[in-house]
Amino acid sequence: MTFNWAHTHLLLNHFPIIGAIFGLLLLVYAMAKDSKELNIATYWLFIIIALLAIPTYFSGKQAAGVVLDLPNISEAFVHQHRNIAEWAFISLEITGAFALMGLLISKSPKKAPNWLTATFIIFVIISTGLISWAGLQGGIIRHTEVRGDLPFLMPDEAGLNDSNQGSQTEGGGKQSEESGHTH
Predict the structure, then answer these.
(1) How far is CA 2 from the centre of its chain?
(2) Is 161 helix (H, G, I), strand (E, B) or coil?
(3) What is the enclosing helix (H) or strand (E) of 80?
(4) CA 19-122-119 angle, 5° bins
(5) Does residue 171 contact residue 140 with C-beta atoms inside 8 Å?
(6) What tens digit of pLDDT does each residue of 44-80 get?
(7) Which helix H or strand E contains 20, and what residues bound it?
(8) Rounded-to-5 percentages of helix, strand, coil across the chain
(9) 113-119 long-range CB contacts below 8 Å, 24 or more apart?
(10) Which of 9, 78, 137, 164 is the most exposed place for a label (fewest CB within 10 A)?
């Protein structure tokens, strides 16, 4: 067995998800305690998450090529995960940029402007939701055991809702009648 992009992506993808959830909780706690030190820690955490999101996102693009060659993989699931991951990546990078601004301002005696704090909070919430959703969609690609429990997450193109197009494989992919190839 050789190490490939799918392995790299699987190693990295948990850090932005867990980090963002932890960061959101830390932000709420920092706000409740009105702690400048905890705010600074939150800024640092989201800067690190934004940096980790870069190799995670780009290894995911490469991992798609590996995964699509596996049996019982639905291209629709991969496509849906990729689309959500792109939005999550963009939002995490924007969040990281606002965190960097907040960190730089926190070094001065001035308090961060209200617009910066509010925008940072909004992007933390959005990016945490998006990266969690992207992770769930990524898990659905291979974890068929959760698909039936979450029908609202199923892409229509997966063929799960249309019995007239080819035979259905166990993994949710459609098998072409001409080639027998699952996609």
Answers:
(1) 25
(2) coil
(3) helix 75-106
(4) 115
(5) no
(6) 999 999 999 999 999 988 888 888 888 888 888 899 9
(7) helix 14-33
(8) 70, 5, 25
(9) none
(10) 164
